[in-house]
Design brief:
46% of the residues lie in helices and 18% in strands. It is of the alpha/beta class. It has a five-stranded mixed beta sheet with strand order 2-1-3-4-5. Helix 7 crosses helix 8 (136-142).
């Protein structure tokens, strides 16, 4: 397994242990993790702290030239908000752990030239299937339903 996808999964598991939704993300620049995060909407009462947004926040301010040389790893297909952030900052490549339990803005990313890799990783699928089954209200809230 890709080491950076494994790091995103570790972030997802960390979020789950803290009572949150098990989605994790890392942003990689020149072979090193620039920012990491996990969904913290529940833990922090936030409306925007999805895993990708948390990873951006933890990466700190970066120049456009840095973002244009990054790969974002996420355990779940990015929602419309996170898709927008990926496009806004010009991230050229996204590695998605799975899109079976939720299909986000992948078509919009492709239409804008973002290279996508979908791993359909069994651990990512298992984390989300179990969470959705046990917490349907929280999951629907997270995706705006």
């Amino acid at each position: 397994m890709d080491i950076f996808l494994q790091e995103a999964i570790s972030e997802a598991e960390k979020g789950l242990r803290k009572g949150g939704i098990p989605i994790g993300s890392v942003i990689v620049y020149q072979g090193k993790i620039l920012g990491r995060g996990h969904n913290q909407r529940i833990q922090k009462g936030s409306v925007v702290l999805h895993a990708e947004m948390d990873a951006f926040e933890n990466a700190g301010r970066q120049t456009a030239s840095v973002y244009k040389d990054c790969t974002l790893y996420t355990t779940l297909s990015p929602c419309p908000m996170c898709t927008g952030a990926i496009l806004l900052y010009g991230i050229p490549k996204v590695v998605i752990g799975e899109n079976k339990t939720f299909m986000g803005g992948e078509e919009l990313l492709k239409q804008n030239g973002v290279e996508l890799t979908v791993a359909n990783d069994h651990k990512c699928i298992e984390l989300m299937e179990n969470f959705i089954k046990n917490n349907p209200r929280l999951w629907n809230e997270d995706i705006g339903r």
